[in-house]
Amino acid sequence: DGTIQSGSAVISSTTPTKMNALSTATKLLTRRATTTGTAIRSVTTLQETLASQLPAKQTQLATLKKEHGSKVIGQVTIDQLIGGARGVKCMLWETSNLDPEEGIRFRGLTIPECQQ
């Protein structure tokens, strides 16, 4: 059926792989402690959360590539590639950065810069 599984990673040519790492990393982890009647709040930043998850994801990807790197999961023509990958079962996304002062940035550019 076009599905390849390695450990907990699954790649399917019919259904896009859902990655929980990004949604998990975007949530700020909060811990509250009370010392002498004062609440203390510590927050793990997104960068720290991603940095802690990356080694495991890199190992998982390397294992998947080693075990299944040469397997074919579909066919793509040059016409499909040039035509915006129409009919190709895949998922691609670009990461962005949200700054509370500047707003969102895509590939380092603000929205007004993207509009130029």
UniProtKB/TrEMBL annotation:
GO biological process, one term: tricarboxylic acid cycle
Alphabetical list of Gene3D superfamilies matching this protein: Citrate Synthase, domain 1
GO molecular function: acyltransferase activity, acyl groups converted into alkyl on transfer
SUPFAM superfamilies cross-referenced by the UniProt entry: Citrate synthase (SSF48256)
Gene Ontology CC annotation, any one: mitochondrial matrix
InterPro entries in the cross-refs: Citrate_synth-like_lrg_a-sub, Citrate_synthase, Citrate_synthase_sf
Residues passing through the membrane, by range: none
Protein name: Citrate synthase
